[in-house]
Amino acid sequence: MNAALLIDSSYFIAAFLFIYGLKRMSSPLTARSGIVVAGWGMVLAVLASFLYTLDVNEAAKPHLSTNLTLALIALALGLGWAWRSGKKVAMTEMPQMVALYNGMGGGAAAAIAAIELIGYKTHGSVSLSLAVLGGLIGAMALSGSLIAWAKLDGRINGTLRFSALQLVNGSLLLVLLAIGAYIIWHGGVVAWPVFAAFFALALVYGVMMTMPIGGADMPVVISLYNAFTGLAVGFEGYVLNNPALMIAGMVVGSAGSLLTLLMAKAMNRSVANVLFSNFGAVSDEDQADIAGSQKPIDAGDAGINMRYAGKVIIAPGYGLAVAQAQHKLYELVKLLQDAGVEVKFAIHPVAGRMPGHMNVLLAEAGVPYDIIFDMEDINGEFKEADVAIVIGANDTVNPAARTNKSSPIYGMPVLNVDMAKQVYVVKRGQGKGYSGVENALFYADNTQMVYGDAQKVMVSMIQAIKSLGGGH
Amino acid sequence: MDYTTTILTGFVALYIFMLAAFTGFEIIGRVPAILHTPLMSGSNFIHGIVVVGALWALLNASSLPEQIIGFVGVLLGAGNAAGGYVVTERMLQMFKPSTKTNKE
Q1: Interface predicted TM-score of the whole assembly (ipTM), two decimals
Q2: What is the pTM of this model?
Protein backbone atom coordinates (compact mmCIF):
# COMPACT_ATOMS: atom_id res chain seq x y z
CA MET A 1 0.00 0.00 0.00
CA ASN A 2 1.23 3.44 -0.91
CA ALA A 3 2.26 5.41 2.20
CA ALA A 4 1.22 8.79 0.80
CA LEU A 5 -2.27 7.47 0.03
CA LEU A 6 -2.58 6.02 3.51
CA ILE A 7 -1.50 9.31 5.12
CA ASP A 8 -3.86 11.36 2.97
CA SER A 9 -6.85 9.11 3.65
CA SER A 10 -6.13 9.21 7.39
CA TYR A 11 -6.07 13.00 7.30
CA PHE A 12 -9.32 13.05 5.36
CA ILE A 13 -11.02 10.87 7.98
CA ALA A 14 -9.45 12.94 10.79
CA ALA A 15 -10.71 16.20 9.28
CA PHE A 16 -14.21 14.71 9.03
CA LEU A 17 -14.09 13.48 12.64
CA PHE A 18 -12.96 16.92 13.88
CA ILE A 19 -15.82 18.74 12.23
CA TYR A 20 -18.36 16.07 13.19
CA GLY A 21 -17.03 16.09 16.76
CA LEU A 22 -17.23 19.87 17.00
CA LYS A 23 -20.79 19.71 15.69
CA ARG A 24 -21.75 17.17 18.37
CA MET A 25 -20.05 19.33 21.00
CA SER A 26 -22.41 22.17 20.20
CA SER A 27 -25.41 20.54 21.90
CA PRO A 28 -25.46 19.53 25.58
CA LEU A 29 -27.08 16.19 24.72
CA THR A 30 -24.29 14.97 22.45
CA ALA A 31 -21.36 17.08 23.68
CA ARG A 32 -19.69 14.31 25.63
CA SER A 33 -19.47 12.01 22.62
CA GLY A 34 -18.30 14.89 20.42
CA ILE A 35 -14.94 15.25 22.12
CA VAL A 36 -14.41 11.49 22.01
CA VAL A 37 -15.09 11.45 18.25
CA ALA A 38 -12.61 14.30 17.72
CA GLY A 39 -10.13 12.53 19.97
CA TRP A 40 -10.13 9.45 17.73
CA GLY A 41 -9.48 11.73 14.77
CA MET A 42 -6.40 13.05 16.54
CA VAL A 43 -5.11 9.57 17.40
CA LEU A 44 -5.54 8.48 13.78
CA ALA A 45 -3.77 11.55 12.39
CA VAL A 46 -0.80 11.22 14.76
CA LEU A 47 -0.38 7.51 14.08
CA ALA A 48 -0.54 8.07 10.32
CA SER A 49 2.13 10.76 10.63
CA PHE A 50 4.70 8.15 11.57
CA LEU A 51 4.43 6.90 8.00
CA TYR A 52 6.42 10.04 7.16
CA THR A 53 9.49 8.09 8.22
CA LEU A 54 9.18 6.05 5.00
CA ASP A 55 9.60 9.10 2.85
CA VAL A 56 11.79 11.87 4.28
CA ASN A 57 13.99 14.40 2.47
CA GLU A 58 17.39 13.26 1.20
CA ALA A 59 19.15 15.62 3.61
CA ALA A 60 17.31 14.21 6.61
CA LYS A 61 17.87 10.52 5.84
CA PRO A 62 21.13 10.14 7.85
CA HIS A 63 19.38 11.68 10.87
CA LEU A 64 16.24 9.59 10.66
CA SER A 65 16.78 7.34 13.66
CA THR A 66 17.81 10.29 15.85
CA ASN A 67 14.82 12.31 14.69
CA LEU A 68 12.42 9.43 15.27
CA THR A 69 13.76 8.94 18.81
CA LEU A 70 13.47 12.67 19.50
CA ALA A 71 9.90 12.64 18.15
CA LEU A 72 8.86 9.74 20.38
CA ILE A 73 10.44 11.34 23.47
CA ALA A 74 8.83 14.72 22.77
CA LEU A 75 5.43 13.09 22.17
CA ALA A 76 5.64 11.05 25.35
CA LEU A 77 6.78 14.00 27.47
CA GLY A 78 4.20 16.45 26.11
CA LEU A 79 1.39 13.93 26.29
CA GLY A 80 2.32 12.69 29.75
CA TRP A 81 2.70 16.12 31.29
CA ALA A 82 -0.48 17.55 29.75
CA TRP A 83 -2.55 14.47 30.56
CA ARG A 84 -1.56 14.58 34.23
CA SER A 85 -1.96 18.33 34.64
CA GLY A 86 -5.31 18.24 32.84
CA LYS A 87 -6.64 15.50 35.12
CA LYS A 88 -5.44 17.30 38.24
CA VAL A 89 -6.59 20.85 37.63
CA ALA A 90 -9.59 22.12 39.64
CA MET A 91 -12.66 23.20 37.68
CA THR A 92 -12.34 26.76 38.95
CA GLU A 93 -8.87 26.97 37.39
CA MET A 94 -10.01 25.72 33.99
CA PRO A 95 -9.69 29.06 32.14
CA GLN A 96 -5.97 29.44 32.79
CA MET A 97 -5.30 25.81 31.82
CA VAL A 98 -7.05 26.37 28.49
CA ALA A 99 -4.82 29.44 28.03
CA LEU A 100 -1.71 27.40 28.78
CA TYR A 101 -2.56 24.57 26.34
CA ASN A 102 -3.49 27.13 23.72
CA GLY A 103 -0.14 28.88 24.11
CA MET A 104 1.60 25.56 23.56
CA GLY A 105 -0.26 25.11 20.27
CA GLY A 106 0.79 28.59 19.16
CA GLY A 107 4.36 27.76 20.10
CA ALA A 108 4.24 24.57 18.02
CA ALA A 109 3.00 26.53 14.99
CA ALA A 110 5.81 29.07 15.48
CA ALA A 111 8.32 26.20 15.73
CA ILE A 112 7.17 24.82 12.38
CA ALA A 113 7.59 28.27 10.84
CA ALA A 114 11.07 28.58 12.37
CA ILE A 115 12.24 25.22 10.99
CA GLU A 116 10.89 26.00 7.54
CA LEU A 117 12.55 29.41 7.53
CA ILE A 118 15.98 28.65 8.98
CA GLY A 119 16.26 25.53 6.79
CA TYR A 120 15.39 27.64 3.71
CA LYS A 121 12.76 25.01 2.89
CA THR A 122 10.00 27.34 1.81
CA HIS A 123 9.80 28.68 -1.72
CA GLY A 124 7.35 30.94 -3.46
CA SER A 125 6.09 34.21 -2.07
CA VAL A 126 2.68 32.85 -0.98
CA SER A 127 4.18 30.01 1.06
CA LEU A 128 6.81 32.33 2.45
CA SER A 129 4.29 35.00 3.43
CA LEU A 130 2.06 32.46 5.17
CA ALA A 131 5.05 30.89 6.96
CA VAL A 132 6.14 34.33 8.23
CA LEU A 133 2.58 35.37 9.17
CA GLY A 134 1.84 32.05 10.88
CA GLY A 135 5.11 32.31 12.78
CA LEU A 136 4.30 35.83 13.95
CA ILE A 137 0.76 34.95 15.07
CA GLY A 138 1.86 31.68 16.67
CA ALA A 139 4.69 33.27 18.66
CA MET A 140 2.37 36.06 19.78
CA ALA A 141 -0.27 33.56 20.87
CA LEU A 142 2.40 31.65 22.81
CA SER A 143 3.74 34.54 24.89
CA GLY A 144 0.34 36.23 25.16
CA SER A 145 -1.33 33.06 26.43
CA LEU A 146 1.44 32.53 28.94
CA ILE A 147 0.86 36.01 30.35
CA ALA A 148 -2.91 35.36 30.43
CA TRP A 149 -2.27 32.11 32.28
CA ALA A 150 0.08 33.78 34.76
CA LYS A 151 -2.41 36.57 35.42
CA LEU A 152 -5.41 34.28 35.98
CA ASP A 153 -3.28 32.00 38.11
CA GLY A 154 -2.30 34.95 40.30
CA ARG A 155 1.37 34.70 39.39
CA ILE A 156 1.40 38.21 37.96
CA ASN A 157 -0.57 40.82 39.80
CA GLY A 158 -1.47 44.23 38.56
CA THR A 159 -1.28 45.51 35.04
CA LEU A 160 1.45 47.26 33.11
CA ARG A 161 0.14 50.55 31.83
CA PHE A 162 1.90 53.70 30.76
CA SER A 163 0.63 56.47 28.58
CA ALA A 164 2.83 55.70 25.57
CA LEU A 165 2.04 51.97 25.65
CA GLN A 166 -0.16 51.96 22.57
CA LEU A 167 2.52 53.93 20.72
CA VAL A 168 5.23 51.44 21.74
CA ASN A 169 3.04 48.49 20.72
CA GLY A 170 2.17 50.13 17.42
CA SER A 171 5.82 50.73 16.57
CA LEU A 172 6.68 47.18 17.61
CA LEU A 173 4.07 45.81 15.21
CA LEU A 174 5.39 48.01 12.40
CA VAL A 175 8.95 46.79 12.98
CA LEU A 176 7.71 43.19 12.96
CA LEU A 177 5.86 43.69 9.68
CA ALA A 178 8.93 45.38 8.20
CA ILE A 179 11.20 42.45 9.13
CA GLY A 180 8.59 40.05 7.75
CA ALA A 181 8.41 41.97 4.48
CA TYR A 182 12.23 42.01 4.32
CA ILE A 183 12.32 38.20 4.69
CA ILE A 184 9.68 37.72 1.98
CA TRP A 185 11.35 40.26 -0.33
CA HIS A 186 14.61 38.34 -0.17
CA GLY A 187 12.86 35.07 -0.92
CA GLY A 188 13.53 33.78 2.59
CA VAL A 189 17.30 33.89 2.03
CA VAL A 190 18.46 36.09 4.90
CA ALA A 191 20.95 35.53 7.70
CA TRP A 192 19.69 33.67 10.78
CA PRO A 193 19.92 36.67 13.17
CA VAL A 194 17.10 38.25 11.17
CA PHE A 195 14.90 35.22 11.87
CA ALA A 196 15.96 35.23 15.51
CA ALA A 197 15.12 38.92 15.87
CA PHE A 198 11.76 38.35 14.16
CA PHE A 199 10.64 35.57 16.52
CA ALA A 200 12.05 37.29 19.62
CA LEU A 201 10.18 40.50 18.82
CA ALA A 202 6.99 38.54 18.10
CA LEU A 203 7.23 37.01 21.57
CA VAL A 204 7.81 40.43 23.14
CA TYR A 205 4.83 41.81 21.24
CA GLY A 206 2.55 39.09 22.68
CA VAL A 207 3.67 40.04 26.20
CA MET A 208 3.18 43.77 25.59
CA MET A 209 -0.30 43.20 24.14
CA THR A 210 -1.47 41.17 27.12
CA MET A 211 0.14 42.94 30.08
CA PRO A 212 -2.21 45.97 30.13
CA ILE A 213 -5.37 43.83 30.08
CA GLY A 214 -7.16 43.30 33.39
CA GLY A 215 -8.30 39.98 34.83
CA ALA A 216 -11.99 40.44 34.06
CA ASP A 217 -11.30 40.77 30.34
CA MET A 218 -8.91 37.82 30.19
CA PRO A 219 -11.49 35.26 28.92
CA VAL A 220 -12.07 37.35 25.80
CA VAL A 221 -8.33 37.56 25.27
CA ILE A 222 -7.84 33.81 25.74
CA SER A 223 -10.58 33.16 23.21
CA LEU A 224 -8.91 35.59 20.81
CA TYR A 225 -5.54 33.87 21.15
CA ASN A 226 -7.33 30.56 20.62
CA ALA A 227 -8.55 31.87 17.26
CA PHE A 228 -5.04 33.20 16.53
CA THR A 229 -3.46 29.83 17.15
CA GLY A 230 -6.03 28.27 14.83
CA LEU A 231 -5.07 30.71 12.08
CA ALA A 232 -1.36 30.12 12.62
CA VAL A 233 -1.91 26.37 12.40
CA GLY A 234 -3.93 26.79 9.21
CA PHE A 235 -1.20 28.93 7.60
CA GLU A 236 1.57 26.51 8.53
CA GLY A 237 -0.63 23.74 7.12
CA TYR A 238 -0.50 25.51 3.76
CA VAL A 239 3.29 25.78 4.02
CA LEU A 240 3.60 22.05 4.76
CA ASN A 241 0.95 21.14 2.17
CA ASN A 242 -0.99 19.43 4.96
CA PRO A 243 -4.79 19.56 4.49
CA ALA A 244 -5.54 18.34 8.04
CA LEU A 245 -3.76 21.36 9.51
CA MET A 246 -5.35 23.70 6.97
CA ILE A 247 -8.91 22.57 7.67
CA ALA A 248 -8.66 22.13 11.44
CA GLY A 249 -6.75 25.40 11.81
CA MET A 250 -9.15 27.43 9.75
CA VAL A 251 -12.28 25.92 11.39
CA VAL A 252 -10.88 26.88 14.80
CA GLY A 253 -9.75 30.26 13.49
CA SER A 254 -13.26 31.24 12.44
CA ALA A 255 -15.11 29.45 15.25
CA GLY A 256 -12.77 31.07 17.76
CA SER A 257 -13.26 34.52 16.25
CA LEU A 258 -17.04 34.17 16.48
CA LEU A 259 -16.78 32.88 20.05
CA THR A 260 -14.63 35.90 20.94
CA LEU A 261 -17.23 38.27 19.51
CA LEU A 262 -20.05 36.49 21.39
CA MET A 263 -18.14 36.72 24.66
CA ALA A 264 -17.30 40.38 24.19
CA LYS A 265 -20.96 41.06 23.37
CA ALA A 266 -22.09 39.26 26.52
CA MET A 267 -19.89 41.63 28.51
CA ASN A 268 -21.19 44.63 26.56
CA ARG A 269 -17.72 45.48 25.27
CA SER A 270 -16.14 45.43 21.86
CA VAL A 271 -13.02 43.39 21.23
CA ALA A 272 -11.09 46.56 20.35
CA ASN A 273 -12.27 48.08 23.61
CA VAL A 274 -10.92 45.08 25.53
CA LEU A 275 -7.56 45.21 23.79
CA PHE A 276 -6.86 48.91 23.68
CA SER A 277 -8.66 50.64 26.52
CA ASN A 278 -7.92 50.82 30.19
CA PHE A 279 -11.02 49.56 31.94
CA GLY A 280 -11.14 49.74 35.70
CA ALA A 281 -10.11 53.37 35.97
CA VAL A 282 -13.51 54.21 37.49
CA SER A 283 -13.88 57.53 39.21
CA ASP A 284 -15.70 57.56 42.53
CA GLU A 285 -17.88 60.54 41.74
CA ASP A 286 -21.59 60.06 41.05
CA GLN A 287 -21.65 56.96 43.12
CA ALA A 288 -22.52 58.02 46.63
CA ASP A 289 -26.13 58.92 45.92
CA ILE A 290 -27.85 55.59 46.56
CA ALA A 291 -30.74 55.99 48.98
CA GLY A 292 -31.60 53.57 51.78
CA SER A 293 -29.51 51.14 53.74
CA GLN A 294 -28.53 47.51 53.61
CA LYS A 295 -30.87 45.32 55.68
CA PRO A 296 -29.38 42.14 57.11
CA ILE A 297 -31.30 38.90 57.73
CA ASP A 298 -30.34 35.68 59.47
CA ALA A 299 -29.43 32.81 57.12
CA GLY A 300 -31.81 30.39 58.82
CA ASP A 301 -34.78 32.75 58.51
CA ALA A 302 -34.03 33.29 54.84
CA GLY A 303 -33.88 29.52 54.36
CA ILE A 304 -37.25 28.97 56.02
CA ASN A 305 -38.86 31.69 53.90
CA MET A 306 -37.61 29.95 50.79
CA ARG A 307 -39.02 26.65 52.04
CA TYR A 308 -42.52 28.20 52.02
CA ALA A 309 -42.09 30.03 48.71
CA GLY A 310 -43.71 28.84 45.49
CA LYS A 311 -40.88 29.72 43.16
CA VAL A 312 -37.21 30.45 43.87
CA ILE A 313 -34.65 31.62 41.32
CA ILE A 314 -30.95 31.35 42.15
CA ALA A 315 -28.40 33.73 40.60
CA PRO A 316 -24.94 32.33 41.29
CA GLY A 317 -21.64 34.16 40.70
CA TYR A 318 -17.96 33.48 40.99
CA GLY A 319 -18.08 34.04 44.76
CA LEU A 320 -20.05 30.77 45.02
CA ALA A 321 -17.21 28.89 43.36
CA VAL A 322 -14.56 30.63 45.46
CA ALA A 323 -16.37 29.50 48.62
CA GLN A 324 -16.67 25.98 47.11
CA ALA A 325 -20.36 26.06 48.02
CA GLN A 326 -21.84 24.49 44.85
CA HIS A 327 -22.40 21.08 46.45
CA LYS A 328 -24.08 22.54 49.55
CA LEU A 329 -26.18 24.74 47.29
CA TYR A 330 -27.44 21.74 45.34
CA GLU A 331 -28.26 19.98 48.63
CA LEU A 332 -30.36 23.03 49.53
CA VAL A 333 -32.02 22.97 46.10
CA LYS A 334 -32.99 19.31 46.48
CA LEU A 335 -34.42 20.03 49.92
CA LEU A 336 -36.53 22.86 48.48
CA GLN A 337 -37.66 20.70 45.57
CA ASP A 338 -38.72 17.95 47.98
CA ALA A 339 -40.83 20.54 49.76
CA GLY A 340 -42.58 21.34 46.48
CA VAL A 341 -40.76 24.58 45.68
CA GLU A 342 -40.02 25.28 42.02
CA VAL A 343 -36.30 26.09 41.79
CA LYS A 344 -34.46 27.49 38.79
CA PHE A 345 -30.94 28.74 38.20
CA ALA A 346 -30.37 31.97 36.27
CA ILE A 347 -26.94 32.26 34.67
CA HIS A 348 -25.51 35.54 33.47
CA PRO A 349 -23.39 35.09 30.32
CA VAL A 350 -20.23 36.07 32.17
CA ALA A 351 -20.97 34.41 35.51
CA GLY A 352 -17.79 32.73 36.65
CA ARG A 353 -14.58 33.61 34.90
CA MET A 354 -15.69 33.02 31.33
CA PRO A 355 -18.97 32.42 29.49
CA GLY A 356 -20.35 29.04 30.44
CA HIS A 357 -17.89 28.60 33.30
CA MET A 358 -20.67 28.72 35.91
CA ASN A 359 -22.55 25.97 34.08
CA VAL A 360 -19.47 23.79 34.29
CA LEU A 361 -19.10 24.49 38.01
CA LEU A 362 -22.78 23.70 38.69
CA ALA A 363 -22.60 20.58 36.54
CA GLU A 364 -19.64 19.46 38.62
CA ALA A 365 -21.84 19.66 41.72
CA GLY A 366 -24.43 17.46 39.99
CA VAL A 367 -27.00 20.13 39.18
CA PRO A 368 -28.97 18.90 36.13
CA TYR A 369 -28.68 21.31 33.21
CA ASP A 370 -32.41 21.48 32.54
CA ILE A 371 -33.07 23.60 35.64
CA ILE A 372 -30.29 26.00 34.57
CA PHE A 373 -31.37 28.87 32.32
CA ASP A 374 -29.56 31.52 30.29
CA MET A 375 -30.23 35.15 31.11
CA GLU A 376 -32.46 35.92 28.14
CA ASP A 377 -34.62 32.85 28.80
CA ILE A 378 -35.28 33.58 32.46
CA ASN A 379 -35.16 37.36 32.83
CA GLY A 380 -38.92 37.59 32.21
CA GLU A 381 -39.65 35.12 35.04
CA PHE A 382 -38.18 37.11 37.93
CA LYS A 383 -41.37 39.08 38.45
CA GLU A 384 -43.25 35.81 39.09
CA ALA A 385 -40.64 34.59 41.58
CA ASP A 386 -41.33 34.76 45.29
CA VAL A 387 -37.65 34.73 46.12
CA ALA A 388 -34.54 35.49 44.09
CA ILE A 389 -31.33 34.57 45.86
CA VAL A 390 -28.01 36.03 44.72
CA ILE A 391 -24.94 34.08 45.79
CA GLY A 392 -21.50 35.55 45.23
CA ALA A 393 -22.59 37.69 42.28
CA ASN A 394 -22.54 41.47 42.20
CA ASP A 395 -22.10 43.45 38.98
CA THR A 396 -24.18 40.96 36.97
CA VAL A 397 -27.27 41.71 39.09
CA ASN A 398 -26.85 45.47 39.47
CA PRO A 399 -30.05 47.20 38.29
CA ALA A 400 -28.03 50.42 37.78
CA ALA A 401 -26.85 48.90 34.50
CA ARG A 402 -30.47 49.25 33.33
CA THR A 403 -31.40 52.55 34.89
CA ASN A 404 -28.42 54.74 35.81
CA LYS A 405 -26.82 56.32 32.74
CA SER A 406 -23.85 57.63 34.73
CA SER A 407 -22.90 54.16 35.97
CA PRO A 408 -19.74 52.74 34.37
CA ILE A 409 -21.56 49.47 33.75
CA TYR A 410 -24.62 51.16 32.20
CA GLY A 411 -25.85 49.14 29.23
CA MET A 412 -24.41 45.84 30.36
CA PRO A 413 -27.16 43.19 30.28
CA VAL A 414 -28.00 42.13 33.85
CA LEU A 415 -30.23 39.59 35.58
CA ASN A 416 -33.44 41.28 36.70
CA VAL A 417 -33.34 39.82 40.20
CA ASP A 418 -34.62 43.08 41.69
CA MET A 419 -38.04 42.34 40.15
CA ALA A 420 -38.63 39.34 42.41
CA LYS A 421 -40.93 39.86 45.41
CA GLN A 422 -38.08 39.19 47.84
CA VAL A 423 -34.34 39.26 47.12
CA TYR A 424 -31.71 37.65 49.32
CA VAL A 425 -28.08 38.49 48.68
CA VAL A 426 -25.50 36.13 50.15
CA LYS A 427 -22.27 38.06 50.48
CA ARG A 428 -19.15 37.99 52.60
CA GLY A 429 -19.12 41.66 53.52
CA GLN A 430 -20.21 45.08 52.35
CA GLY A 431 -17.55 45.41 49.62
CA LYS A 432 -17.94 46.35 45.99
CA GLY A 433 -17.85 44.08 42.93
CA TYR A 434 -15.08 43.34 40.46
CA SER A 435 -15.69 46.59 38.60
CA GLY A 436 -15.61 48.65 41.79
CA VAL A 437 -19.15 49.89 41.26
CA GLU A 438 -21.61 50.31 44.14
CA ASN A 439 -24.64 48.03 43.76
CA ALA A 440 -28.07 49.67 44.03
CA LEU A 441 -29.70 46.25 44.47
CA PHE A 442 -28.26 45.90 47.98
CA TYR A 443 -30.13 49.03 49.09
CA ALA A 444 -33.49 48.21 47.51
CA ASP A 445 -36.60 47.88 49.71
CA ASN A 446 -37.19 44.25 48.77
CA THR A 447 -33.59 43.19 49.35
CA GLN A 448 -32.21 41.60 52.48
CA MET A 449 -28.55 40.79 52.98
CA VAL A 450 -27.29 37.46 54.31
CA TYR A 451 -23.73 38.14 55.39
CA GLY A 452 -21.27 35.30 55.64
CA ASP A 453 -19.23 32.72 53.77
CA ALA A 454 -21.46 31.14 51.11
CA GLN A 455 -20.73 27.61 52.25
CA LYS A 456 -21.58 28.35 55.91
CA VAL A 457 -24.74 30.21 54.86
CA MET A 458 -25.87 27.19 52.82
CA VAL A 459 -25.29 24.90 55.81
CA SER A 460 -27.33 27.16 58.11
CA MET A 461 -30.16 27.30 55.60
CA ILE A 462 -30.17 23.51 55.19
CA GLN A 463 -30.22 23.00 58.97
CA ALA A 464 -33.03 25.51 59.43
CA ILE A 465 -35.18 23.83 56.79
CA LYS A 466 -34.45 20.33 58.11
CA SER A 467 -35.41 21.42 61.63
CA LEU A 468 -38.93 22.12 60.36
CA GLY A 469 -39.44 18.41 59.82
CA GLY A 470 -40.37 16.51 56.70
CA GLY A 471 -44.11 17.45 56.50
CA HIS A 472 -45.21 19.04 53.28
CA MET B 1 -0.79 1.73 -7.06
CA ASP B 2 0.51 5.03 -8.36
CA TYR B 3 -0.54 7.68 -5.94
CA THR B 4 1.21 10.93 -5.17
CA THR B 5 0.05 13.54 -2.68
CA THR B 6 -2.14 16.25 -4.14
CA ILE B 7 -0.39 19.60 -4.03
CA LEU B 8 -2.76 22.08 -2.43
CA THR B 9 -1.82 25.47 -3.79
CA GLY B 10 -3.45 28.53 -5.25
CA PHE B 11 -7.21 28.46 -5.55
CA VAL B 12 -7.61 24.92 -4.23
CA ALA B 13 -6.06 26.10 -0.97
CA LEU B 14 -8.19 29.21 -1.01
CA TYR B 15 -11.37 27.13 -1.45
CA ILE B 16 -10.36 24.90 1.45
CA PHE B 17 -9.72 27.92 3.69
CA MET B 18 -13.02 29.55 2.72
CA LEU B 19 -15.16 26.45 3.23
CA ALA B 20 -13.42 25.59 6.51
CA ALA B 21 -13.96 29.14 7.77
CA PHE B 22 -17.69 28.95 7.00
CA THR B 23 -17.92 25.55 8.63
CA GLY B 24 -16.42 26.87 11.85
CA PHE B 25 -18.70 29.89 11.80
CA GLU B 26 -21.85 27.81 11.24
CA ILE B 27 -21.03 25.28 13.95
CA ILE B 28 -20.47 27.89 16.64
CA GLY B 29 -23.23 30.24 15.54
CA ARG B 30 -26.11 28.35 17.15
CA VAL B 31 -24.48 27.27 20.37
CA PRO B 32 -26.10 28.04 23.74
CA ALA B 33 -23.95 30.14 26.07
CA ILE B 34 -23.73 27.25 28.55
CA LEU B 35 -21.39 25.45 26.15
CA HIS B 36 -19.08 28.38 25.39
CA THR B 37 -16.36 27.33 27.81
CA PRO B 38 -16.28 23.65 26.79
CA LEU B 39 -16.39 24.67 23.12
CA MET B 40 -13.49 27.07 23.49
CA SER B 41 -11.60 24.25 25.12
CA GLY B 42 -12.76 21.80 22.44
CA SER B 43 -11.62 24.01 19.59
CA ASN B 44 -8.39 24.50 21.51
CA PHE B 45 -7.98 20.71 21.39
CA ILE B 46 -8.65 20.59 17.66
CA HIS B 47 -5.83 22.96 16.75
CA GLY B 48 -3.64 20.50 18.64
CA ILE B 49 -3.46 18.82 15.21
CA VAL B 50 -0.44 21.12 14.84
CA VAL B 51 1.50 18.26 16.46
CA VAL B 52 1.22 16.40 13.15
CA GLY B 53 2.92 19.27 11.30
CA ALA B 54 5.59 19.51 13.97
CA LEU B 55 6.20 15.76 13.64
CA TRP B 56 6.75 16.12 9.91
CA ALA B 57 9.13 19.04 10.46
CA LEU B 58 11.13 17.14 13.09
CA LEU B 59 11.36 13.95 11.00
CA ASN B 60 12.70 16.02 8.11
CA ALA B 61 15.17 17.99 10.23
CA SER B 62 18.75 17.88 8.98
CA SER B 63 20.67 20.12 11.38
CA LEU B 64 20.97 20.51 15.13
CA PRO B 65 18.99 23.79 15.40
CA GLU B 66 16.20 22.23 13.35
CA GLN B 67 16.18 19.19 15.58
CA ILE B 68 16.02 21.30 18.74
CA ILE B 69 13.21 23.50 17.48
CA GLY B 70 11.40 20.46 16.10
CA PHE B 71 11.68 18.68 19.43
CA VAL B 72 10.21 21.69 21.24
CA GLY B 73 7.49 21.95 18.58
CA VAL B 74 6.37 18.33 18.97
CA LEU B 75 6.51 18.65 22.75
CA LEU B 76 4.31 21.76 22.73
CA GLY B 77 1.94 20.35 20.11
CA ALA B 78 1.48 17.10 22.01
CA GLY B 79 0.77 19.12 25.16
CA ASN B 80 -1.82 21.17 23.33
CA ALA B 81 -3.62 18.09 21.99
CA ALA B 82 -3.49 15.97 25.15
CA GLY B 83 -4.26 18.79 27.59
CA GLY B 84 -7.04 20.14 25.42
CA TYR B 85 -8.64 16.70 25.22
CA VAL B 86 -8.49 15.95 28.94
CA VAL B 87 -9.95 19.24 30.18
CA THR B 88 -12.69 19.27 27.53
CA GLU B 89 -13.67 15.70 28.28
CA ARG B 90 -13.74 16.40 32.02
CA MET B 91 -15.99 19.41 31.54
CA LEU B 92 -18.42 17.72 29.16
CA GLN B 93 -18.66 14.61 31.30
CA MET B 94 -20.42 16.68 33.93
CA PHE B 95 -23.33 17.79 31.76
CA LYS B 96 -26.23 15.55 32.73
CA PRO B 97 -29.99 15.98 32.41
CA SER B 98 -32.10 15.63 35.59
CA THR B 99 -34.13 12.67 34.32
CA LYS B 100 -31.83 9.67 34.42
CA THR B 101 -32.27 8.31 30.91
CA ASN B 102 -28.74 6.88 30.64
CA LYS B 103 -28.71 6.62 26.90
CA GLU B 104 -25.02 5.79 26.75
Answers
A1: 0.90
A2: 0.79
